[in-house]
Amino acid sequence: MPELENSAEQISERVYHRQIDLLYNNQTLAVVSTAAAVFLLMFFLNLSVPWSDLFPWAGMFAMVLSTRMLATWLYQYKKRSHHPLESGLAEKLYFAGVALTGASWGLMMINLFPRLDSDSQILLLLTVQGFVSVSHNTMGYRRLPYLCYTLLLALPAVYVVYHADFSYPVAIMLLLVIHLVFVMRTANASYNGFTAMLYLQEESISREHKLLLQREQASLANQAKSEFLSRMSHELRTPLNAVLGMNELQMLDKHEPLSQQQRERAEKINEAGKHLLSLVNDVLDLSRIEAGSLVVRLEPVDLQQTIRDACKLVETRAAEQSVTIGFEALPEPVWVRADAQRLKQVVVNLLDNAVKYNRVGGSVTIGLSSGRGDSWRLSVVDTGYGIAQQDMSELFKPFARLDQNRSSIDGAGIGLSFSKQLVEIMHGEIGVDSRVGEGSCFWVEMPAAEPVVQTGHKVARLRVAAGDEASAANPVKRGRRLLLVEDNLVNQEVALEMLQGYGFSVDVADNGEEALQLFQDNAYSLILMDCEMPVMDGLTATRHLRRMEQERRLQPTPVIALTAHAIHGAREKCLASGMDDFLSKPFSNSDLRNVLANWVALPDQTESEPEASHQSSDADSEQILDMSAISRLRTRRASLVNRVVQLYLEQSPDVLNAIDDAIAVPDYEMLSNIVHTFKSSSLTVGAVRVAEMCRQIEAGCQQGDVDANLCSQIRQDYLAAEEALHNLLQADSIPA
């Protein structure tokens, strides 16, 4: 494989550099040892020959060894200056120095050996053989220098012995040859072992580097995944808020009530939208678990109360399928250690599955018993179709559905996998026993917890109501005035209609900065604050608002967070900034009413509802406008369509100019905020091409590189959308 070959070549190259480096690191020791040996040898050889015969050889050694030291200094200097010598050149310089040293020894031996006495000859011979034996310790990191040096010393030694006046010259020659073979074999084995060790070290370093790189990539991937979840949560839930909110207002419209057929269609839209929202939440939750970002708070939880709450949530579906749910509570509370919200999710999921996969007219029985060790077991037994043994291994896998032959049953196959991972995170255990045709028993075991002693009632948060003492002191609040802080046009309109239906007077701010200005000049009973807005986001605005209240010694105004983010920590961040409650988009009319009821007094009157509208189509606009978005707007009364489209057409030229100004600086943060809001508004009126350009620009802002052609293209697409919207309004007889 090419990747492996490239990797092996790189490792070989690094090993080669290490070998050259080691040669030069040990050359100083080799030169100093050789110089000392030559000095001592000359001193003792002077007993046999005069100094005049030794000086030329001493001078030759001095010159050769000095050259080698100079090469060592040059190599180390270049290395320290971060401009190292090329390894091939460095090896050639080293080899030249070794060859000159070996040649000096050999020539000196051939020249001086015949003129020495027998003692001096033995001394010279032993010195040379000593260098043959130990030379691989300093130059054995490469084969060629060592072999050259050894042969230049050993072969002259054999030659002079052969011509010397020894009693057994042949025997001495054989011993020298045997010694040479043994030394070279040892040196070769040492070279091979050391080279293999270097390879292993480099491979280990390479793998460690790859591991660190993979860890970094995994960390970046997790971060990207979290950012993706956050963005997708917002992008999916924001339009769902508009769809579900408008559909619910349409169903409650009493001025122009829907026909029976229209109501049935609206109910199906509502059911499908809630199902889609449930799927979005499940996928996000499952992704958070897989990313390790889901945090649970383990505390004592009343399991029987959790079961009762879960039964209430599935009783409607059970009634539709004529399935009865039975639960015989124990006389004493059952406490388990778990996260209350997550445990409730698990129980609801098990009950919902037991109802969905049951027979019409069947039953679901909930049981509680002691589990293994110090734990409690919750059992959910149904009278459904059962599960085959061979399918058990697939049961708790994500997106695995075993009911494909019953395609009418909704779901994405996430619930059981999500429940299993939730239970395991809470240190519990989940399992199933089933027989085909007889039904199934899903069970959950959770660790037991110490009973919680109820010492008193929980203290409710401050509520601002019409009859409160605080309200009596503040006539403006008694006048039911609210502040809505929301940058998305369609969400403004949906929330406005809901709030005005309760009789509230509502001021609207497009960002946190405007909200602070309105709050400074007015008093409000409650503030609905979007979290993600341009100019100033909701979290920052709330912090400033709380400081203003402290400085002016005002009673805290309830602030409700409106956010399309469903990722972990969104609620905690909102509350930490000073907000009092949390409403997740998309929210229904009942969701809004329930939150408002916690903070302000609500009248008994019903909301005013929108009138029915007509539908029309424009074939020429289909390529420019998303007609499904136009149709959704038409489900509201004409005045709402007029307001939304007119606002879009009035504000868009200023938005386009702001885009040009931000790209000219460039200010990518400002540009990202502008196109994010413009994208939402464009999708609301169906300007899909403009929204797509906004999406691409927003993606470029995140990378710090925006294509200027996109900014010119967005104007062209807007002009086409503007013309199509004007034509559409004229065709509908709505004044533009």
Could you describe the 3D structure shown?
This protein is of the alpha/beta class and 736 residues long. The protein has helices at residues 2-45, 51-80, 87-112, 118-134, 136-139, 143-163, 169-251, 260-290, 303-320, 340-356, 415-425, 469-472, 475-478, 489-501, 512-521, 538-552, 570-576, 589-597, 627-634, 638-664, 668-684, 688-703, 708-731, and strands at 299-302, 324-327, 335-338, 363-370, 375-382, 429-435, 439-447, 481-485, 505-509, 526-530, 559-563, 581-584. The chain contains 23 helices and twelve strands. The strands form three sheets. A five-stranded mixed beta sheet has the order 2-4-5-7-6. It has a five-stranded parallel beta sheet with strand order 9-8-10-11-12, sandwiched between helices. Strands 1-3 form a two-stranded antiparallel ribbon. Strand 6 (429-435) and strand 7 (439-447) form a beta hairpin. It is elongated and about 130 Å long.
Summarize the structure.
The protein has helices at 2-45, 51-80, 87-112, 118-134, 136-139, 143-163, 169-251, 260-290, 303-320, 340-356, 415-425, 469-472, 475-478, 489-501, 512-521, 538-552, 570-576, 589-597, 627-634, 638-664, 668-684, 688-703, 708-731, and strands at 299-302, 324-327, 335-338, 363-370, 375-382, 429-435, 439-447, 481-485, 505-509, 526-530, 559-563, 581-584. It has 736 residues and is α/β, with parallel strands linked by helices.
